Amino acid sequence: MKIGVFDSGLGGLLITKALRAAMPDYDLVYLGDTLHVPYGRRSAETVFQLTKNAMDYLFREQDCHLIILACNTASASALRRLQQTYLAEHFPNRRILGVVIPTLEHAIDLGHTNIGLIATENMVDSGIYDDELRKINPAINLRSVATPLLVPMIENNGMRYIEPILNDNLAPFKTTKIQSLILGCTHYPRLAPLIKKILGEDVHLISQMDILPPSLIDYLTRHPEHDAQLSKNATTQFFVTDLTPGYAESACEAYEGNVELRVASYEPL
Question: Quick check: do 2-98+211-263 and 101-208 share a fold?
């Protein structure tokens, strides 16, 4: 059985690449919902339904035992409900893991009290990072900025136009002098060099492609019963829900290598 990685678009390819480097023996399957990207402006119910359909495909058609919900918006809007309802009813012995908790744990471990967050509108509106950080340390000041244009531009070969928009998005952090910045979307690590250029090298970037592999390895070490279910033939498969020449080009660019995308066709539950 495989490890699945799901994202609303192609950003999760960075997570998949990082997992492949850190866990070379495991079988991985990636699914990007390119037909419905971005999730950031969709309702919570729509995000839940789209994510549930993807989980069902990965569990039933791709034989996944464990799925990483790489999409921050889905992690915030749908993960708990999926675990408590869909997973409990249909696949009680399998697991869906999100990206928010590992990111929060890393932010806390840094000991910083002045933190920035860039994310989708849904992610910022959810307040999940702010709420959870303040529960642990009320002294933490989190400044959140919604950046709705970044994902569509990254997904549609707009990287060469993105710097002025990113500069505008990051302007609030220049005055608050943040110590670290949470990249609250799997697409954003591709912007790390530009972000460093704008904010300076002193700002620590909290990137999920760096956080998730060691977090998953730790999880499997603590839960050998799940690790024992995972096949280890070093295979990687890539699926999307809509395939265009632009997506194919963006996928290879994001993965920094050849990516053979195939179309996943599944019906809504």
Answer: yes
185 is catalytic: yes
Give the per-residue pLDDT at 268: 64
Range list of H helices, the chain: 12-22, 44-60, 72-77, 79-81, 88-90, 100-110, 121-126, 128-136, 150-155, 163-176, 192-199, 208-222, 224-227, 245-255
Question: In this structure, what token pair is assigned to residue 219?
Answer: 């999880």
Q: d(Cα 215, Cα 236) in Å, to the nearest integer?
A: 20
69, 185, 230, 254: the active-site residue: 185
Q: Give me the CATH code for the 101-208 domain, please.
A: 3.40.50.1860
Residues 96/79, Cβ–Cβ less than 8 Å: yes
Residue spans of the chain under pLDDT 50: none
Among 79, 55, 78, which residue's Cα sits nearest to residue 67?
Answer: 55
Task: Name the residue with tokens 């991985």.
Answer: 28
Candidates 3.40.50.300, 3.40.50.1860, 2.30.30.60, 3.40.1180.10; correct CATH number of 2-98+211-263?
Answer: 3.40.50.1860
Residues in Cβ contact with 207 at an 8 Å cutoff, skipping those fewer than 6 apart? 183, 188, 189, 192
3-state SS class at 125:
helix
The pLDDT score that the predictor gives to residue 269 is 59
Question: How confident is the model at residue 130, as a pLDDT?
Answer: 85
Catalytic residue of the set 28, 37, 69, 71: 71
pLDDT digits (tens, 9 = 90+) for 211-269: 999 999 999 999 999 999 999 999 999 999 999 888 888 888 888 888 999 999 887 65
Predicted structure pTM score: 0.89
